[in-house]
């Protein structure tokens, strides 16, 4: 394949400075990954393994200690709102703005005039099924609806790349499944590139084209599992044979890393030498 | 564990209301009786009728207007000084976490000192005119405004700021669309507290050392032992403070209501 | 965009040192401004105020006035606390008392006490009584309100558990009600202390025949700003010390409370 990857991550490493002069904590170590355009990649791993750090670096919120990230061939030097949209775990909606205003925030920050903003935001809200609620405030919505608004906000900026940091983690199981199916439907049609962080094994297998399994901190790639099933995926996929073979494989890969991460929490920071 | 605060049911409601009315009536009756039978010197406690008469007399004579104007001017000017300085400095101190950690405890510790303690210094420097009161009011109101502003701006959830940065917001856009709306309720609350504190400290300052003002009027009566008239002015001051509080709360609601909350 | 974090944080960037630095900077600014303005009758630089501190403290009369004021503050505060807690418990635990009196208390709390200052002056004269009474009037309401609120907001789950374990009434008070009361009570007491300080000092300043008010009047009329600064400084330091004591006590008694963790 001669096509440029949408995201090329090369030998990324990151250390956080410790408090109380305890020395730096290496969150990420020698992490490299190519994400093709239109691909859905899931990052999964134990707590503290650096998966959110990777997302923050791609999103331009954090400058890595070592290594670099190329997005569409250009090096990252800060947030790139035209190319990358980010959905956070808690939604990060503005409580004082209506659903419509929230959905059009990204466009407002890019100086899109008001009428055009609202048009685009309305169609994004329609895509997530919230047209009837455009006048509501986030405080009046359920958790699932709030995340839909966050998704609409990300869709409205029409960026090719979507970063999602455990967006469904705060929701109950049923809502997660529904939203997962919706996400798959939505993106099957729009051809976005997605990097999705999750703790949920089912979610990872259900949504991803490739699942990247992290080691415990300092994180790097343990293994990548490919899920060969076209998008949009239907709910039935969750009970298929393929699914029921992949999920346990994923679990056994994670199992040791999770145990390692839990014992790490009892020890102080474990610095590792940079590569 | 008794369930104390839940709303009253029928019979309880009657019992409570009766007691409250009985207490109020009883107090009034005792007051009248005590003064009528001269058990209490009318110097200490004038008869209620006298107080009412004096109060009406005060309103009729209208001599209070010039002092009220002085007090009012002192309150407004001191509040404006405190508001501008407090919000500006509060914002500046909220920008870096280190600054917040340095200045917020400092301001909080100073807030605990009754500013009236500095008043003699202001009187020495500014004299007995309105400026010493304005300085007192401004200093008193500064602290709650600055503290609330710091908390308001520094307390904007990190995630909101991250989301805005990712969406490409410039510094100015961030300030206008994220920081100010987020900090707004706290800042307004701080301004409200500041205004009330300015009012109270200015009245106190006028009582302690002043040529003019409502506080001065009242203390004059106390020193001249015109108890009935003094009580009359106290009622006047009470009504004034009620009006001020009502205005401030109305202003706060109007300003917050512009955010179009639905029931 | 550089976000490089330093591996070792320099000691002088700690907030405590920076605060000291800013305070010293302020004193320096004051010193220079005072020298430039150079009107020794109305304004004094901190260096002279510091010297005057020694002078006035060697005056027995000043020491007595300060001690008297401190006594009044402590008495007013203890009265406020005692009455606030006692009445607060009575009203908070009785359905009838709560509904009859709570609104009244809120109204009284909302009335600016300065309006009754002339009244108190008339009744108690210019002695210690006025100062204690005025301090008390300011200090009792926050404590009363905090106790009533604290008694109302008991964790129902804890109450159920204690009941199920067969707790007697005194057990309830000692192990369920009081401990939950403590954080809110201390907040109320801190507000109360600020109020008491305000009330007592205001009353002291008013009376110019003796006490603090006598000295503030004297130093003002004799155009001795340095001594006035020094006296005010002592009072401010007293206020800070009292507040700090309460704060330490609060931290000690609420070590278990999640809301105060990290507020030290």
How would you describe what is shown here?
The complex is a heterotrimer of chains A (275), B (263) and C (264). Chain A is of the alpha/beta class and 275 residues long. Chain A has 8 helices and 10 strands. Chain A has helices at 51-58, 99-103, 105-109, 114-127, 143-156, 173-190, 201-207, 241-266; strands at residues 7-16, 25-35, 40-44, 66-71, 74-75, 84-87, 161-165, 193-198, 210-214, 221-226. Chain A has a 6-stranded mixed beta sheet, sandwiched between helices. Chain A has a 4-stranded antiparallel beta sheet with strand order 2-1-4-5, with helices on one face. In chain A, strand 1 (7-16) and strand 2 (25-35) form a beta hairpin. In chain A, helix 4 (114-127) packs across helix 5 (143-156) and helix 7 (201-207) crosses helix 8. The longest helix of chain A has 26 residues, at 241-266. The mean pLDDT of chain A is 87. Chain B has 263 residues and is an all-alpha fold. Chain B is built from 10 helices and no strands. Chain B has helices at 10-36, 48-61, 64-93, 97-111, 119-126, 130-154, 158-166, 171-208, 214-223, 227-257. The relative contact order of chain B is 0.11. The model of chain B has no long low-confidence stretch (mean pLDDT 88). Chain C has 264 residues and is mainly α. Chain C has a single domain (62-261), classed as MetI-like (MetI-like fold). Chain C contains 10 helices and no strands. Chain C has helices at 15-37, 46-57, 60-93, 95-110, 117-124, 128-152, 156-164, 169-206, 211-221, 225-253. Chain C starts with 14 loop residues before the first helix and ends in an 11-residue tail after the last helix. Mean pLDDT of chain C is 86; it is low at 1-5 and 260-264. Chains in contact: A-B, A-C, B-C. Chains B and C meet through helix 1, helix 4, helix 5, helix 8 and helix 9 of B and helix 1, helix 4, helix 5, helix 8 and helix 9 of C.
| Count of separate structural domains of chain B | 1
Which percent range describes the beta-strand content of chain C? Answer: under 5%
Order of helices and strands of chain C: HHHHHHHHHH
User: What general outline of chain B do the C-alpha atoms trace?
Assistant: globular
Task: Provide tags for this entry.
heterotrimer; B: 263 residues; mainly alpha; MetI-like fold; 10 helices; 79% helix; 0% strand; C: 264 residues; globular; disordered N terminus; disordered C terminus
């Amino acid at each position: 394949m001669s096509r440029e990857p949408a995201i090329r991550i090369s030998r990324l490493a990151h250390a956080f400075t410790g408090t109380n002069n305890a020395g730096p904590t290496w969150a990420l170590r020698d992490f490299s990954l190519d994400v093709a355009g239109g691909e859905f990649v899931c990052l999964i791993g134990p707590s503290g393994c650096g998966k959110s750090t990777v997302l923050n670096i791609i999103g331009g919120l954090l400058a890595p200690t070592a290594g670099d990230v190329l997005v569409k061939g250009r090096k990252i030097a800060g947030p790139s709102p035209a190319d990358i949209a980010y959905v956070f775990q808690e939604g990060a909606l503005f409580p004082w703005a209506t659903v419509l205003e929230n959905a059009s925030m990204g466009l407002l920050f890019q100086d899109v005039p008001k009428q055009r903003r609202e048009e685009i935001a309305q169609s994004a809200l329609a895509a997530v099924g919230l047209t009837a609620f455009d006048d509501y405030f986030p405080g009046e919505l359920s958790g699932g609806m709030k995340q839909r608004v966050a998704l609409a906000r990300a869709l409205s900026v029409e960026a090719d790349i979507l970063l999602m940091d455990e967006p469904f983690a705060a929701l109950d199981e049923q809502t997660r499944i529904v939203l997962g199916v919706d996400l798959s439907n939505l993106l099957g049609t729009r051809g976005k590139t997605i990097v999705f962080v999750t703790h949920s094994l089912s979610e990872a297998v259900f949504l991803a084209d490739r699942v990247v399994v992290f080691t415990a901190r300092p994180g790097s790639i343990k293994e990548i599992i490919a899920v060969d099933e076209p998008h949009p995926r239907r709910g039935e996929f969750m009970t298929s044979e393929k699914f029921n073979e992949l999920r346990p494989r994923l679990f056994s890969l994670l199992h040791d890393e999770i145990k390692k991460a839990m014992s790490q929490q009892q020890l102080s920071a474990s610095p590792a030498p940079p590569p | 564990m008794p369930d104390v605060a839940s709303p009253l049911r029928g019979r309880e409601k009657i019992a409570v209301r009766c007691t409250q009315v009985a207490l109020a009536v009883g107090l009034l009756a005792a007051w009248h009786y005590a003064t009528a039978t001269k058990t209490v010197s009318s110097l200490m406690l004038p008869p209620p009728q006298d107080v009412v008469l004096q109060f009406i007399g005060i309103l009729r004579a209208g001599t209070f207007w010039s002092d009220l104007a002085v007090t009012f001017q002192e309150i407004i000017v001191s509040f404006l000084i405190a508001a501008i300085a407090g919000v500006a400095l509060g914002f500046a101190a909220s920008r870096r976490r280190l600054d917040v950690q340095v200045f917020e405890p400092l301001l909080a510790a100073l807030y605990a000192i009754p500013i009236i303690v500095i008043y003699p210094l202001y009187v020495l420097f500014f004299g007995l005119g309105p400026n010493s009161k304005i300085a007192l009011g401004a200093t008193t109101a500064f602290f709650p405004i600055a503290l609330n502003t710091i908390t308001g701006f520094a307390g904007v959830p990190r995630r909101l700021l991250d989301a805005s940065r990712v969406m490409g917001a410039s510094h100015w856009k961030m300030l206008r669309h994220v920081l100010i709306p987020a900090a707004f309720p706290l800042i307004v609350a701080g301004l409200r507290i500041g205004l009330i504190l300015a009012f109270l400290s200015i009245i106190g300052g006028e009582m302690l050392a002043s040529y003019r003002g409502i506080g001065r009027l009242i203390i004059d009566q106390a020193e001249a032992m015109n108890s009935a008239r003094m009580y009359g002015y106290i009622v006047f001051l009470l009504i004034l403070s009620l009006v001020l509080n009502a205005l401030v709360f109305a202003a706060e609601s109007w300003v917050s209501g512009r955010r179009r909350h639905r029931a | 965009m550089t976000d490089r974090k330093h591996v070792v944080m320099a000691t002088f960037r700690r907030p405590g040192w920076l605060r000291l630095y800013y305070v010293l900077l302020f004193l320096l600014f004051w010193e220079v401004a005072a020298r430039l303005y150079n009107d020794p009758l109305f304004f004094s630089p901190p260096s002279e105020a510091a010297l005057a501190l020694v002078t006035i403290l060697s005056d027995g009369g000043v020491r007595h006035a300060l001690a008297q004021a401190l006594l009044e503050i402590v008495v007013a505060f203890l009265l406020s606390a005692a009455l606030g807690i006692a009445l607060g418990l009575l009203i908070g635990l009785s359905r009838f008392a709560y509904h009859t009196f709570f609104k009244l208390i809120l109204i009284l709390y909302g009335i600016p006490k300065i309006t009754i200052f002339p009244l108190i002056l008339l009744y108690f004269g210019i002695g210690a009584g006025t100062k204690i009474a005025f301090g008390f009037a300011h200090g009792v309401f926050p404590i009363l309100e905090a106790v009533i609120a604290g008694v109302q907001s008991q964790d129902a789950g804890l109450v159920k558990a204690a009941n199920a374990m067969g707790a007697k009434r005194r057990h309830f008070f000692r192990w369920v009600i009081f401990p939950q009361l403590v954080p809110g009570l201390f907040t109320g007491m801190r507000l109360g202390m600020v109020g008491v300080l305000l009330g007592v000092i205001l009353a002291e300043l008013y009376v110019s025949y003796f006490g603090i008010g006598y000295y503030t009047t004297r130093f003002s009329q004799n155009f001795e700003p340095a001594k006035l600064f020094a006296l005010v400084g002592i009072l401010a330091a007293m206020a800070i010390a009292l507040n700090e004591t309460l704060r330490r006590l609060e931290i000690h008694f609420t070590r278990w409370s999640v809301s105060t963790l990290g507020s030290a």
